[in-house]
Specification:
The complex is a heterodimer.
Chain A (H helix, E strand, L loop, with lengths): L1 H67 L2 H15 L4 H16 L5 H7 L2 H18 L4 E8 L4 E5 L11 H9 L2 E2 L3 E2 L6 E10 L5 E10 H9 L9 E6 L3 E5 L7 E2 L4 H4 L5 E8 L2 E9 L11 E8 H4 L1 H48 L13 H27 L15 H153 L4 H133 L5
Antiparallel strand pairs in A: 1-2, 1-6, 3-5, 4-5, 5-6, 7-8, 7-12, 8-9, 10-11, 11-12
Helix pairs in contact in A: 1-7, 1-10, 10-11, 12-13
Chain B lengths: L7 E7 L2 E6 L3 E6 L13 E7 L2 E7 H4 L12 E6 L4 E6 L1 E7 L5 E3 H4 L6 E7 L2 E6 L7 H9 L1
Chain lengths: 713, 150
């Protein structure tokens, strides 16, 4: 309500503001155009002042050209020229003279200087220029007058001069080259006045250069004559500067050649002419400026003239207009606010009542009664509002019945455009259908939840078992790992042993070779022994034969002895001695016999021993052969054994390597198993939570089923 | 034959026993030689041998003394004896030699026992007790007869 009133007031004020803005804009526009027009006129004025100055200077040049052509001047210059032409070194002379003149300026008046300044010509010229203008214009305009010959040496001079020679000066040379010209303003040291130097060449009868007139005229007299003629406003001020901002002249207090290039009125200068507003001396000032134009054949002085007027002075009418507009705007504002307040009150009151009722409806309160007065659009709005309130009460009752679970209620559609009614109808249909679906779904959900609950319990117990199994497996794997460690150690030991065995086998091979050699030697010795024994046997046989012979002889001797004994016994006493001899012989024969018997028995022993030796030798030989054979076999066996052992060693090394890899693998398996174990434990935890969730789900399913059964269809 | 004739005996061995003959009947001794069998001769004769050109019947003392039979060996001895009737060869195992025999050492067979056959008696010598055979009683009547027929 307040916003509406504020809007109305705001609208009024906006309208007023726009009007006031237009008024202000026109005030500013008029001020601007006034400023422009004054600025422009000031530019014209500035331009005109400059033209006046140039014209005055040009007049002077023209005048000097007229005077310079007189017969007297020409004659005197020619005379001096001839005098100088005759000199061997005029330049040296001029330098010497120049020093004399400089010295004379300091006080010592030299006769040569007096000769020139006091010459007839000088007197003539003095009367023509200085005296003439002083009496005519009432002021000393010409500050200094010098006449030089062709060489630049002074021929005649008016006024104080500290210089004799001029051919070195820029202005003298420029005038000699291109005719009469003016130099820039400068301060004359002798008079302390700003002066403008002018140079005008003198020509002879043939028109060629023969001398130069140099004149310094007072700048002030030229400028004041041009400026004084202009004074429009009280605050008007004029400034004249060189192009690089050195102050030449000002209507206010100034110093000659003061640097004004940093001042606001000089910094804003752009182009040949224009105007601008800038603060000068604490006051807003309208400045207009112009660059010096030429005058006829004269190129003009390189100067800039700036005219300044106080803005308050110049724009006074415009400011008065603005003040009036401000006063009128204030009055309009007050009036506008009063009117806006009155209008807004008549509209906002009934709207506020409606707004309150609508706010109550928004809060859900449909019981507030609105009073209806009048016949305008707001009354009609209130009536429609009442109808809407009634319709909403009907819908509320309808919703109340649905809320109580009665889905048999019929929808009340007030028109084909009754989107709320249609929506309620759709809602009712959807609610019926969804309730049916929810009932079905709840049944299914309850059953599924029950099944899930059962499965989850089963799963939980399974996962517990799995975790236990995993734990066991982890332990087993740890044991297997230990075993793998052990087997790895064993494999390393085995590889070591295999290497040692290989070395031993190598040693065995060497031993077998040595054995074979030894057996070979034994065989040779056995052969020798066999031969020896065979020889021995032969010799034994020979001995046997000899023994037999001896035995035979013994037998014969015995026989003879016995027979002799018999004969001796028979012979009686005579044969007694013989019988003793026979007895002796018999005894010897018997001893012989016994000896041979002994020899025979020894021989038999020898023979027996020999045959035993032969047999033993044969057996030895056979044994040696056997040994040889066995050594060969042993050699083969050891060779193959060495080969096998080498293979075994390689195998053992491979086993050791494999075992190492297996060990690494086992470590990885153990780590993996540990991860599985952790995961399994987490799985058990998860399953426990899942079980809890399933239990909750089961409860929810049951509850939902009960809730849905409350609906009547 | 009597012992006092010579006073010496020839001692010989057959088997375990030692025997002796009176040296009076002993002609000589020989080494064993090849014996040629005599088929018709009495049992105690094992054959005949040639001794210096004479053929003599060989009597085996083993058979005579009823000792176990064994063939003639090279080491055996042959004693050539001369009885009153004839000359024969005796095969003995070994001849010990000639021994003196004193009368005091002699014991007559009659003093020993009756019916001892050819044994005349026993005498004690350095070789121990030896039986002394009587050559005359060596052969029985039938043996003598059989020899005569040859």
């Amino acid at each position: 309500m307040k916003t509406l009133g504020m809007k109305l007031i705001g609208g009024f004020l906006l309208l007023l503001l726009m009007i006031v803005a237009v008024a202000f804009y026109s005030s500013f526009a008029s001020q601007k155009s006034l400023q422009d027009s004054i600025g422009q006129s000031s530019v014209f004025v500035a331009n005109e002042m400059l033209v006046n100055m140039n014209m005055a200077i040009y007049d002077w040049i023209d005048r000097l050209e007229q005077r310079g052509g007189t017969q007297v001047v020409r004659m005197k210059v020619e005379e001096s020229n001839r005098e100088f032409d005759a000199m061997e070194a005029p330049s040296v002379y001029m330098d010497r003279m120049d020093k004399v003149w400089t010295a004379s300026a300091k006080g010592e008046l030299s006769p040569s200087v007096l000769k020139v300044t006091g010459s007839e010509l000088s007197q003539e010229l003095r009367s023509q220029f200085l005296t003439h203008f002083e009496t005519k214009l009432g002021a000393q305009i010409v500050d200094k007058f010098i006449l030089t010959n062709r060489y630049g040496a002074t021929v005649a001079a008016l006024g104080a001069s500290a210089q004799y020679r001029f051919d070195g000066g820029a202005l003298w040379r420029k005038a000699k080259e291109s005719g009469s010209c003016a130099g820039d303003v400068e301060l004359d040291e002798e008079s302390g006045q700003p002066v403008i130097p002018l140079a005008v060449p003198v020509t002879d009868a043939q028109g060629s250069f023969s001398g130069m007139i140099l004149v310094w005229i007072s700048a002030d007299s030229i400028i004041r004559n041009a400026v004084i003629t202009y004074k429009k406003y009280e605050t008007t001020q004029v400034r004249l500067t060189t192009i690089d901002g050195k102050l030449i002249y000002a209507t206010k207090a100034y110093r000659f050649m003061e640097d004004a290039s940093t001042k606001a009125y000089f910094r804003n200068i752009k182009g040949d002419s224009g105007s601008f507003v800038s603060v000068d001396g604490g006051r807003a000032t309208l400045f207009s400026y112009a660059r010096s134009p030429g005058y006829l054949g004269f190129a003009g002085m390189p100067w800039i003239l700036v005219v300044g007027n106080d803005v308050s002075d110049v724009l006074a009418p415009s400011f008065a207009l603005r003040n009036n507009i401000i006063l009128a705007s204030g009055f309009l504002f007050v009036l506008g606010i009063i009117v806006a307040l009155l209008i807004s009150r008549s509209i906002t009151r009934p709207v506020a009542a409606l707004q309150k009722a609508a706010a109550e409806i928004t809060r859900g309160n449909l019981s507030r009664v609105i009073e209806v007065r009048g016949r305008d659009e707001l009354a009609m709005l209130a009536r429609s509002f009442l109808e809407m309130q009634t319709a909403l009460l009907g819908i509320a009752a309808f919703a109340e019945r649905i809320a109580s679970g009665d889905l048999t209620v019929q929808a009340v559609k007030r028109s084909e455009e009754d989107s709320l009614g249609i929506s309620l109808e759709h809602m009712l249909e959807n609610l019926r259908r969804q309730t049916r679906e929810i009932q079905d779904g709840a049944g299914v959900l309850a059953a599924a939840a029950s099944e899930i609950f059962t499965s989850t319990s089963q799963f939980a117990s399974n996962s517990s078992e799995t975790a236990a199994a995993v734990s066991q497996t982890t332990t087993t794997i740890e044991e297997v790992k230990q075993t793998a460690h052990l087997s790895n150690e064993k494999a390393k030991q085995m590889a070591d042993r295999a290497r040692r065995t290989e070395e031993i086998a190598q040693a065995g091979r060497v031993s077998v070779q040595e054995t074979t050699q030894v057996i070979g030697r034994i065989q040779e010795q056995m052969d020798t022994i066999g031969e020896s024994i065979t020889r021995l046997s032969g010799q034994s046989a020979s001995i046997g034969e000899i023994t037999m012979t001896v035995s035979g002889l013994a037998d014969q001797s015995n026989l003879l002895a016995v027979n002799a004994a018999i004969e001796a016994a028979k012979a009686g006493e005579q044969g007694r001695g013989f019988g003793v001899v026979a007895q002796e012989i018999k005894s010897l024969a018997e001893q012989s016999k016994r000896a041979t018997a002994q020899v025979r028995s020894i021989l038999a022993e020898i023979q027996k021993a020999t045959s035993g030796a032969v047999m033993a030798t044969e057996q030895g030989t056979r044994a040696v052969e056997q040994g040889m054979k066995q050594a060969g076999e042993a050699k083969d066996s050891i060779e193959s054994l060495a080969e096998t052992v080498a293979e075994a060693a390689r195998g053992a090394a491979q086993i050791a390597a494999s075992s190492e890899q297996q060990l690494v693998g086992m470590d990885q398996v153990a780590m993996a198993m540990e991860s599985i174990k952790v995961a399994s434990v987490q799985g058990v935890e998860g399953t426990r939570q899942l079980e809890l969730g399933a239990q909750n789900l089961h409860g929810v399913g049951q509850k939902m089923k009960q809730l849905v059964e409350l609906y009547r269809m | 034959m009597r012992i006092e004739d010579t006073g010496h005996i020839l001692v010989f061995a057959v088997g375990e026993m030692k025997h002796a003959l009176s040296l009076a009947g002993v002609e000589r001794v020989e080494l064993a030689a090849e014996v040629t069998p005599l088929p018709e001769a009495p049992h105690v004769f094992i054959g005949a041998i040639n001794v210096r050109g004479r053929i003599l019947p060989v009597l085996s003392m083993r058979r005579r003394l009823h000792l176990p039979e064994r063939g003639v060996k090279a080491s055996d001895w042959i004693i050539i004896v001369q009885s009153s009737r004839r000359r024969i060869a005796l095969v003995v195992d070994e001849v010990m030699g000639v021994r003196p025999a004193e009368r005091s050492d002699f014991t007559s067979a009659d003093a020993l026992s009756e019916g001892l056959g050819c044994v005349a008696g026993a005498v004690r010598t350095e070789d121990g007790i030896v039986l002394i055979h009587d050559l005359e009683l060596f052969l029985s009547e039938e043996e003598e007869m059989a020899l005569e027929k040859l």
